[in-house]
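With this grant's support, the team has encoded backbone shapes as discrete tokens. A representative record is reproduced below.
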Amino acid sequence: MTRHVTFDRLHNFRDLGGYRTADGGTVRWRTLYRSDSLAKLAGPGAGADLERFRALGVATVIDLRYPWEIAAKGRHPEGEPQAWHNLSVEHRPYDQEAIDPALDPWRYLADRFAEVAEDGAAELREALELIAGAPGPLVFHCASGKDRTGLLAALVLALLDVDDAQILADFALTGLATERLVGDWKAAHPGREPRWPGYGRAPEEVMRLVLADLRARYGSVAAYATGHLGLDPAVRAALRTRLVEPAPVG
């Protein structure tokens, strides 16, 4: 199976299948995807990418961006059959490009993730409920498919009992798209360079800090989900039923 789905305009579209769970199961392929903004599938010249997307059979799209981002950049193509949900999980906007290079960048980013985990409880819970109950393949995305998308991906994998090593590795795969993501930023800001040299990166250390922070505050990712998010334990069970292929018997 192939984790990275190749598009011309999308840089960070990946299948979350194949990761091993603690009980020997495997996250199902071709069921749950993560991506950068699907707004790139709209407009002139996007036809080939749109056909590639349609071939995946995606039934549900979760857009984690702010409404103002959608107003400025567009959404996934209207008129497509996928159910579309805008769940803006981040409530305290910041300009990642402008992070002070003198700061510890990974601690800074982990603190921003902590804000999303705290403020976005209702949206994160609804996203997990949608993922658990979707009728077919589902994709969730933000702008770059890195931070907001990375947090939701980590929560899903942790609730499926995927170990930290695999969660961190999945997060860091955005590094393969960094050059193209930075290229998009430069194209949108001619003549400029990102002030923060780490722009577009997703090192494992950020997610290691995020998971450690959640456990320090709530005891476990599952306790955070059922406690702070208010996730019904039945939804976690439904996530496992839908997304995990059990280990072979015998």
